[in-house]
Amino acid sequence: MERNLIAAGGPDTFVQLDDVSIAYGGEGGTLALTETSMTIREGEFIAVVGPSGCGKSSLLKLVSGLHPAFRGSVKVAGQEVTGPLKICGMAFQNSTLLPWRTTLDNVLLPLEIVEPHASRFGAHKSEYREQARAMLATVGLSGFEDKYPWQLSGGMQQRTSLCRALIHSPHMLLLDEPFGALDPFTREELWDVVQGLWLKSRPTVILVTHDLREAVYLADTVYIFSPRPGRILSRNEVDMPRPRRLKDAYTPHFIEMTQALREQIVSGTQA
Amino acid sequence: MSKVWLKRLLPWLIVLGSLVLWELLCVILQIEAFILPGPIDVAKALIKYPQAVFVNAMYTLFTTLTGFTMAVVFGLTLGLIVGASRTIYDGLYPIMIAFNSVPKVAIVPVLVIWFGVGVIPAIITAFAISFFPIVVNVATGLATIEPELLDVLRVLGARKRQILIKIGIPRAMPYFFASLKVAITLAFVGSVVAETVASNAGIGYLMIAASARFDVPLVFAGLVVIAAMGVILYEFFAFLERRVTFWAARDNGIVS
C-alpha cells in the first residue's frame, strides 16, 4: 500500500523507479538492490543513507543509465532509461579529476562533450573559460585555475569536482559520497558549497552518503536503506527552511531527526 | 660537495670507474688486445678509423630510427586499438605473444631472401623487435583506466571516441613514453643484429669486418659507439617524457 503511494508520481515527477532490482553477475548473481520504488520530484534534493553494500551506489548507476535494471523500470523525465543519460553531472568520493589538466580545464571538460556546448566550444572558448572561472570563484577557488589537481588539497579537489559536475547546468546531479574522504570541518564547509550551488540552479540531486547529519542538513527527503540486498526502509521529509545554516545542525530538532534516522538504520541492520 | 652535484656526477664517475677497472684488469692479467682490448686500445681504434666509424654509425642510426619510427606509429595505433576493446585484446594477444616469442635473429635470413642484403632487413628487424613493448604498454595504459573516470564521461553521454581522446590517450602517455625508452634500445639490438648477418654497411657490418681481420679493438669500438648512441637516445626520450607527462611523476620537482 505504502509502496504504491510512493511510486504513484505526480505531474512534477522527474525520476520514477518501479519495483527495480539490480544484480551484478547476471541471473543468480549478487542482488545489490531489490524491489525498490521511489519518486523524485523535479528539483528535489534527496539523500540515500544505509549500511555499506546496500546498493546505494548501484542506485546512482541505475538512474544515470550506467547500469541496467535487472527487473523493474526506471524513468527519468518521462522517458524509460535504456542507456547513459546526457543530462547528469556526477561527483564521487575520489575527485576523479584528470591529472594532466589544470583545474580550469578539468571544470571545462563536460562542455567539450555535452551539446550544445561541444560544437560551439572552439569558437567561444574564452566565454566558457570565464564561466568556469566564475564558478570556481563561487566555491572559493579563485587563483587556483592554473594549478593541477595534485597541487590542491583534498577539499579543493572536491570543490573542483563539484564545479565540473555542474558547469553544464545538468538537470540531475548525482553525488556518490562526495565528502567521505574529507575531514569534518572541510566536509561541513562543502555542505554549504553544495547547498549554494543547488539553490542557484535547482537540479534534481541524489546524494548517497554514510553521514546522517549530512543527509538531514542537505536533503529535502532522506531515504533509509536496509542492508544488502537493499530495500527502502523509510522515506523521511526534512522540514527545515532554506537556506540552512551550519548552526541549524546543532539545534535539538536537527539532533532529534538524525537520532530517529539512526535508530531506523540500527534496527534495520539487526532485523 | 652538495647532494645535487653528487647525483649529477655519479653516472659519469661510475662510467669512468668501470673504464679504469677494465683497463687495470687488462694490464694486470696481461690480457692480449685481440682477446680483450682495454679502453685505451679501443679509443685508439676509434681515432684510427674516424671516417669508417662515423659513416657506419650514421648508417646504423638511420636504420634504427627508421625502424623505431615505424614501431612507434604502428605500436601506438595497435596499442590504442587493442587497449580500447576487450574483444580485440583477447583476439590479438595470442598471436602477438607468438610473434614476439620468435627470435628476431632467426627472421633475418628470410628477410634477406625477400629484400636482399641492405637497409631493409635492418629496418624491419629494428621495427619487429621494438614495436611489441609499445603495443603492450599503450594497451595497458588504456585498459587500466579507473572505471570512475570513465563514468564521469559516460554520464555526460560521451561517445567511445570522445572517451578515447579526452581520457584514454592522455592517460596512456606515461606508459607510452616508458615503452619508448625500452623500445629505442631494443631497436639498436635489432638493426645491429641484422647488419652483422646481412649488410654491407653499419656498425654491425663494421664489427664483423673488423673481427674477420682480428681487429678486436675496432670490434669493441663498434660496441662502444652503439652503447653511446643508445644512451643518448634514451636520455632524449627520458627528457621528452619529463616534459610531456610531468603530471605522472609529481614528486620529481619539475612542477612545484
Précis, in short:
The complex is a heterodimer of chains A (271) and B (256). Chain A has 9 helices and 10 strands. Chain A is an alpha/beta fold and 271 residues long.
What report would you give on this structure?
The complex is a heterodimer of chains A (271) and B (256). With 271 residues, chain A is an alpha/beta fold. Chain A folds into two domains: 165 residues, Rossmann fold, CATH 3.40.50; 75 residues, no CATH class. Helices cover 37% and strands 23% of the residues of chain A. Chain A has a six-stranded mixed beta sheet, sandwiched between helices. Chain A has a four-stranded antiparallel beta sheet with strand order 2-1-4-5. The N terminus of chain A is likely disordered. The two termini of chain B are 25 Å apart. Classes of the chains: A alpha/beta (271), B mainly alpha (256). Chains A and B meet through strand 6 and helix 3 of A and helix 7 and helix 8 of B.
How are the SSEs placed, and which strands pair?
The complex is a heterodimer of chains A (271) and B (256).
Chain A: H1 2-7, E1 13-24, E2 30-41, E3 45-49, H2 56-63, E4 71-76, E5 79-80, E6 88-91, H3 103-113, H4 117-120, H5 125-138, H6 154-166, E7 172-176, H7 184-201, E8 204-209, H8 212-218, E9 221-225, E10 232-237, H9 252-270
Parallel strand pairs in A: 3-8, 3-9, 6-7, 7-8
Antiparallel strand pairs in A: 1-2, 1-4, 4-5, 9-10
Helix pairs in contact in A: 3-5, 3-6, 6-7, 8-9
Chain B: H1 3-28, H2 39-48, H3 50-84, H4 86-101, H5 104-115, H6 119-143, H7 147-154, H8 160-197, H9 203-212, H10 216-244
Give short descriptive properties of this protein:
heterodimer; A: 271 residues; alpha/beta; Rossmann fold; six-stranded mixed beta sheet; 9 helices; 37% helix; B: 256 residues; mainly alpha; MetI-like fold; 2 domains; 10 helices; 0% strand
